[in-house]
Recover the amino acids of this structure.
């Protein structure tokens, strides 16, 4: 893994001292368990820490707000170690090779990503660096099992989660996480970089007018330190009962670590080992949590195998689905004004905080794709803009799963009834009361079906259901039965 000493870049750099190693940060905004950073530090060469905002691969909306905070936290963490985070803005396929040349870098190192656009970008950059005589090394850090490592006996990719998980477990625990480096030998600002680099604020990630991020600021603290503190707190105090309580949006029963995992403030290996080795709760709680981390890897591997899933149905019979295109219904769903309290609570929680409980994500996704008969891609796009944890693999795979057109998906005919789901998973109505305060006075027996109350009890502003439960269900099933090959 040592750089080629005959390369033009390292030859010219060696005239002015050791050639630096560029660590290119992407979805791995942390110092611990960062193999690319550890490799750079271990090389003994001066280090340049780089983040490139490439609009083609960048998140949007709430996730962009998170990214701003994550970058500020990384900048401060690096600065405490004497290193600088350099930030550039533009096409990474042009910028990374150019910055490497300007710095006379010996190597550029990064942790691998697996989504179609990210892979294409990295392959192009690797080739460009090679042509310039700069070594490029990549490392596994963002998943527990890289997509090509978990295979059937015949060497094929898995299409069923339970079988994938069994095979992944048979491979043993993921490797233990690496410690953060003690010190980073910073290379200073190379000639020519000043003109290419910008401050984090200049990326324009924070909303100005209107400032819609108040609820996000009140809910989250992006960055490695906060993520590690939350992981510790979850493992020590909140694990007990996770296996059953994780389905209850009214209880603080899940880790809420998804945005920290999405932006790599902690790695899945760190989460795994914290839970598997030190986790509180019963064995079934720990096993369930680890299996959820497994879903994250499984989604990554599905998209790796079939990049077209980003836009295309896995089950192609769904290509003929007569999805409705109704702007009024869509708006009601997005704004949390469908007249179904559990759906509205979820959509308002999402709008305010950039996050929604997993059970409620399933309920609102089922409502959109079944009761409203709207294309899963419309919902996926809304989530992509509004979730702080928006992740292409997890989002697409879960939307296709709920919509019935995905890999190992719930059958389309399994239509969630939002009233029954509400009664089962939010039995006292605590979750609805929090996010739909105009219904807070209703008794638990009626809060999930306010239309059954006396008219005077229902607040004027709260809408009547935009579609009847039976009507929406029947319309969805009739559309689905019309598909050839629907099973
Ligand atoms: P916990 O219950 O504490 O789980 C721990 C971790 O496991 C999570 O942080 C997450 O990284 C992973 N995980 C849990 N459930 C899933 C799952 N079903 N699929 C993949 N990973 C999972 N998750 C995202 O991170 N980004 C998304 O864009 C996203 N979109 C979704 C869209 C829909 C329609 C649905 C139904 C689910 C989506 N999920 C997504 C999965 C899941 O809802 C969230 O990961 C979870 O709610 C995060 O909360 P938590 O960290 O408290 O989870």
């Amino acid at each position: 893994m040592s750089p080629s000493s005959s390369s033009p870049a390292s030859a010219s750099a060696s005239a002015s001292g050791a050639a630096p190693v560029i660590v290119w940060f992407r979805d791995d905004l942390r110092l611990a368990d960062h193999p690319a950073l550890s490799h750079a530090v271990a090389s003994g060469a001066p280090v340049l820490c780089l983040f490139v905002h490439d609009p083609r691969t960048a998140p949007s909306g709430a996730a962009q707000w998170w990214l701003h905070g994550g970058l500020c936290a990384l900048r401060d963490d690096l600065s405490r170690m004497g290193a600088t985070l350099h930030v550039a803005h533009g096409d990474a396929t042009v910028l990374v090779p150019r910055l490497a040349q300007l710095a006379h870098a010996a190597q550029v190192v990064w942790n691998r990503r697996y989504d179609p656009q990210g892979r294409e970008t990295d392959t192009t950059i690797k080739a460009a660096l090679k042509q310039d005589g700069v070594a490029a090394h990549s490392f596994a850090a963002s998943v527990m099992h890289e997509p090509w490592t978990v295979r059937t006996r015949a060497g094929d990719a898995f299409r069923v989660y339970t079988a994938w998980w069994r095979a992944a477990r048979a491979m043993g625990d993921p490797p233990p996480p690496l410690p953060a480096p003690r010190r980073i030998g910073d290379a200073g600002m190379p000639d020519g970089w000043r003109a290419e680099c910008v401050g984090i604020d200049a990326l324009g990630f924070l909303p100005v007018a209107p400032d819609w991020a108040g609820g996000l600021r009140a809910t989250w603290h992006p960055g490695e330190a906060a993520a590690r503190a939350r992981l510790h707190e979850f493992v020590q105090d909140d694990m007990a009962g996770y296996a059953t309580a994780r389905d209850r949006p009214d209880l603080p029963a899940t880790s809420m670590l998804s945005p920290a995992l999405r932006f790599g403030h902690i790695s899945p290996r760190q989460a795994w080992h914290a839970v598997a080795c030190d986790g509180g709760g019963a064995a079934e709680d720990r096993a369930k949590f680890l299996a959820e981390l497994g879903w994250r890897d499984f989604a990554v591997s599905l998209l790796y195998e079939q990049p077209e899933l980003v836009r295309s149905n896995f089950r192609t019979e769904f290509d003929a689905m007569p999805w409705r295109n109704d702007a009024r219904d869509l708006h009601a769903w997005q704004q949390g004004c469908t007249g179904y309290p559990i759906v509205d609570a979820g959509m308002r929680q999402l709008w305010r905080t950039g996050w929604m409980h997993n059970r409620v994500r399933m309920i609102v996704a089922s409502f959109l794709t079944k009761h409203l008969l709207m294309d899963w891609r419309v919902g996926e796009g809304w989530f992509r803009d509004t979730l702080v944890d928006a992740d292409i693999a997890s989002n697409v795979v879960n939307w296709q799963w709920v919509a019935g057109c995905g890999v190992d998906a719930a059958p389309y005919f399994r239509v969630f009834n939002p009233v029954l789901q509400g009664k089962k998973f939010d039995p006292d109505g605590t979750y609805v009361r929090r996010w739909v305060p105009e219904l807070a006075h209703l008794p638990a027996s009626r809060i999930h079906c306010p239309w059954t109350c006396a008219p005077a009890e229902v607040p004027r502003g709260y809408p009547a259901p935009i579609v009847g439960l039976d009507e929406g269900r029947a319309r969805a099933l009739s559309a689905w039965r019309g598909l050839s090959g629907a099973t």
Summary: The pocket of flavin-adenine dinucleotide is lined by residues 246, 254-258, 261-262, 292-293, 295-296, 299, 358, 361-362, 365, 383, 387, 389-391, 394-395, 398-399, 402 (CB under 6 Å). Residues 103 and 190 are 5 Å apart (CA to CA). Residues 1-16 have pLDDT under 50 and may be disordered. The chain is about 45% helix and 5% strand.
